[in-house]
């Protein structure tokens, strides 16, 4: 059973979803439902931290998962999404996911570097706009 954790970045309207362990398609769907139903998620960016996860999924199942994720997504215009992975297999499958979702017009990144991905996400137009609104409201 994988371990799954969600952390809100209230300053920029983003969310970091981390998973460790073996992930099946059912686990990934469950994670998707958890993420998209997180109270307080502003939809500015989404970072999937999968450095400690191992995928138990076929390339064909990735296509089905991409379609499933597109149906759940509530990211706002100007949002970004990133996957951080640590192995070549997970990197390749995450790249396949981003390629399948490219037609949605969502900016996406796959990287082995957590800090690089988080920095890139926080520069998303939606995150910058959200942060400015939050700062102005304070």
Word description of this protein:
This protein is of the alpha/beta class and 138 residues long. It has a single domain, classed as STAS domain (Transcription Regulator spoIIAA). Helix content is 45%, strand content 28%. It is built from five helices and five strands. The protein has helices spanning 25-36, 59-72, 88-101, 114-122, 125-137; strands spanning 3-9, 14-23, 45-55, 80-84, 107-111. The protein has a five-stranded mixed beta sheet with strand order 1-2-3-4-5, with helices on both faces. Helix 1 runs parallel beside helix 2 and helix 2 crosses helix 3. It is globular. The chain starts with a strand and ends with a helix.
Question: What topology emerges from the helices and strands here?
Answer:
Layout: E1 3-9, E2 14-23, H1 25-36, E3 45-55, H2 59-72, E4 80-84, H3 88-101, E5 107-111, H4 114-122, H5 125-137
Parallel strand pairs: 2-3, 3-4, 4-5
Antiparallel strand pairs: 1-2
Give the overall shape.
Answer: globular
Portion of residues in beta strands equals 25-35%
Low-confidence stretches: none
Order of helices and strands: EEHEHEHEHH
Q: Look at the helices and sheets and give the structural class.
A: alpha/beta
Q: Taking all residues together, what is the mean pLDDT? A: 89
State the CATH topology: Transcription Regulator spoIIAA
Radius of gyration: 14 Å
Helix run count: 5
User: Which second-level CATH architecture applies?
Assistant: 2-Layer Sandwich
Q: What's the N-to-C terminus distance? A: 42 Å
Q: Describe the strand arrangement of the main beta sheet, using strand numbers.
A: 1-2-3-4-5
DSSP strand count: 5
Oligomer: single chain
Can you say what the CATH homologous superfamily is? Answer: STAS domain
Which CATH class?
A: Alpha Beta
> Describe the biggest sheet?
5 strands, mixed
Total discrete domains? 1
| Helical amount | 40-55%
